Amino acid sequence: MKKEWPLWEVFIRGQHGLNHRHVGSLHAPDAEMAIKNARDVYTRRKEGVSIWVVPSAQITASDPGAKDALFEPSMDKIYRHPSFYDIPDEVGKM
Amino acid sequence: MASATDLIANDIQFEWLLRRGDTALVLGHRVSEWCGHSPVLEEDIALANVALDLIGQARMWLSLAGEIEGQGRGENELAYLRDAWDFRNFLLAEQPNGDFGQTLMRQFLIDAYQVPMLEALKGSKDERIAAIAAKAGKEVAYHLDRSADLVIRLGDGTAESHRRMQQALDALWSYTGEMFVSDAVDTAMADAGLAPDPASLKAAWQETVDAVLDQATLTAPEDEFAHTGGLTGRHSEHLGHLLAEMQFLQRAYPGATW
Q: Which domains does chain B have, with CATH numbers?
């Protein structure tokens, strides 16, 4: 039997943040305890107003070795940035 | 401003405030003894957070106590320059940490009391007491959430964790009765509308404890015997040892600051 508790990735939405951001990881026996532990480990200094936890094992990561093939081709395609257009104020935050 | 000073004698209020402040201080110090020694890192930080909450609550209660006493003593003098017989904490708070299970059980039994106590104090006629209760109440609600959860998990866990939690409950049970004993101080505070009669908190405490112990598959001892004495300064041997460590710096180096 594996004695170590599973690892969880912790995401916190800050006071004024719009989205949850990855802040770190921790060990916990289940999701409920992971939330409690995340509260105690990662929100001691008023860092957040909402917590998500995800089992680390559930995260599928891109292959670091494939970095060039995955990301290099977009480097010279600046026209994909919407910086050539005037965005009306009514659109709001994009 | 409706100040308690207008309603009842200062020495009664002082005595009552020491009960709140000393219980928070002594329990907070006990919990802080786990810092760096907890079974897992996450629990270590969680316990340190609880300890800091309690010490923060002690500061508020003892500052107010010193103010009402009017002898020039502040939170520091009350915390560090009194001997055991001047402390007014519940005996339960000073009981040794034992194993992790005993620490959690002690925490749970006190948290289950603090929640209804602070809830009632939010309606105190003294707005300073009500303000402390409002702040501390949020902290303690989380403490109870956490301690109750862990008591259930460990009570209803492995055979070993169940055995340890039952042992902790058996060891601590006789110290719970003291929390609901009303004396002249409590009656005067209740009559003035400053604080609830401790006996009135028993039902809410019992309900929480019964529900949690039931889920935790633990059985409270039948014995109704209750150790008392904490509120009159007759403490168990453990408090002196705790104070020796907690007060060492101020005793050896009076007035030291950093």
A: 7-252 (1.20.1260.10)
